[in-house]
Structure formats: structure tokens, C-alpha cells
């Protein structure tokens, strides 16, 4: 039986802390902590407590002083993806950065409350094309802690 070329085992791979530069020019604003692969839906749990404070989202000034956890994510299909934070031990923020320019372009940002449901869980739905690489970033309002990130295809 031939392996399915579209199947990817779910994995959360830790990335090296140094020399990460998707653009090759040495100008990345941060280094992703882990890489997420499908299939989806999936939930990953992590913590911002021991991560660096490299990034600050546009949707909250106070997150400039909080640790952030960065997942590298590559879309496995042309689809709308949903990213939502659950079970956070702090008040989290969620934002997505383009990897193509080493994390300097923000594509979406979610604090709280989130329309249309006014949920306090940060939530982003965004369209990606297969192979598009982004950085899914979890930050906090002047706080750090444990969180769960759920990713699904809408």
C-alpha cells in the first residue's frame, strides 16, 4: 500500500534557540519556540513563563513587557484556520506574524473580548494557502503562564 502523500503525523517539534532565520538575512525579530504540523484539529499546551519577551502585538500595549511563546505553523491546505486559546493561567493575547519577513508583519491580533461571541478566549480565523508559513504567537497582559492552543480548519 502506497503512503498517502497528504498525510502528516501530528507533531510539536522544538526548534533550536539560535540561528533561526527564514529569510536568510539575519534580521529576524524572534526565534520560534516550536513547530506545529497537522492534521487538524489539534490542541497543544505550553507556557510563556520561560520564553523570551521578543514581540509585542498591536492589540495591547501592555503585552510589550510579557513573555511570548512562538509556534511556527505551515498551512497544510488552502483553508480558513481557527486558532483559539483555552485554559490559560493568565490573561492571554494571540497574534499571527508573517514568516516571510521574519516576523515583522502582523497578519491578525486578538485580545479580549472577541466579537461576535465576546468570548474572553483570544480567537483568530484566517485564510491561508497551502505552504504558507506564519508565527502563531501567545503573549500576555503583563503576565505569563500555561495555556492550550486549539487549531482547527473551519
Architecture overview:
The structure is a single chain. The chain has 154 residues and is an all-beta fold. The protein is built from no helices and 10 strands. The chain has a single domain, classed as Sandwich (Jelly Rolls), CATH 2.60.120.380. The strands form 2 sheets. It has a 6-stranded mixed beta sheet with strand order 1-2-4-9-6-7, with no helix packed on it. A 4-stranded antiparallel beta sheet has the order 3-10-5-8, with no helix packed on it. The relative contact order is 0.27. The N terminus is likely disordered.
The best one-word shape is globular
CATH-defined architecture? Sandwich
Helix content: under 10%
The CATH topology: Jelly Rolls
Order the strands across the largest sheet as they lie in space: 1-2-4-9-6-7
**Helix/strand order:** EEEEEEEEEE
Mean pLDDT: 77
Tally the helices: 0
Cα-to-Cα separation, first versus last residue: 31 Å
When the domains are counted, the total is 1
Sketch the major β-sheet: 6 strands, mixed
Radius of gyration: 15 Å
The number of strands is 10
Class in CATH?
Mainly Beta
Strand content: 35-45%
Low-confidence stretches: 1-25
Which structural class fits the helix and strand makeup? Answer: mainly beta
